[in-house]
Amino acid sequence: MGPASRAQPGTMAQRPRWPGSGSSAPVLGFGSLFPAVEGASFSERRGLWINIHADPHNGGEGGIPIDVDEVFVRLYDMAILAADYGHALTILLSAPWTEHLLSDDTDRALFAELLRDHGHKVGFHHHDVSHTGGDGWDGFHSLELADCLDYHRLLECLVARPVEEAYSEYQTLAAVLTTSHGVPGSLFSGGAVASHGTEPEYRNQEWQEGVLYSQGMPVALLFDLATGRTTFSDTVRCDNFNGVTVAETGGMHFSVGLPFGPLSGRPPDPNTTEVLDSLGDAGSGDYVGVTIHAWEYRAETSAPGGSSSFGIGEPRKNDDDLIRELFAELDQQNIHAEPIKNIMDREAAAAGLPCGSLMLP
User: What is the CATH number of domain 41-359?
Assistant: First the structure.
């Protein structure tokens, strides 16, 4: 039984799939909506990655708890859609998602399919106690209680688990998928990708040995106030967290979900046009990174107030349509996302960087 029809106990679930997911039929018309990316014959040192952040239970819009069992269906269908258009994603699992996949045999088998049969890769994802966006913390930490007081989470910290346990569970899931589901170990990024909260000191303190890649924000981020357009790309560089030398690059959240805008103190998230513009502007050694959250994409039409432009209260497209538009237009222009590990390894080698999986024996 496919994920779209898998009912919860005592319910008759109506779980819509992405329109056309599971089919390789092309979507027509996008070529007339977007200009061609100039110079889009990408060399080995230009590229695009798309990461899916599978966030903690309370990382959703307005701190609304996430039902991983429900949201997993959206993640699965979105990853199938991406593969239909030739995109290989990196799916970053926070602890609640790892725990769910370890306990749910059906979803674990479906997740293994995404990796084994569709070319996606997986990485580790951690929200420390400083993470913003609702109550986005994942309940794991290695901090002193005084740090928890700073974030008004003393009682929560008293029952929290060490962050080492979250990473250990991720490693356990990797072992189970490899030994019991035939997933090649190479699909687990060699190390993994971790994205933490807002405070560098916590990011450094909680970094786990063996996590060799970091996804952050781009170093160069240009925002045109007149047009409301965001242009972004980034290079691969080395950083050091908790004594671990890691390869790092940055990306931007795609323009669906949270209503970022001028009142939020940050530029609007890029839409499909801005992703294409950034790809066109990228030079040798420049990469464009796009982040999508598994929890914030809904099948129903989105409410007004989207992040696709300045306009607070301006309606935006159906979330499904926005994601399909991005995947389809990139495919139409023969631009395909690849796992972030591939980019990290390739660029570390090309630039002679002392970081990335080149450090592995």
Answer: 3.20.20.370
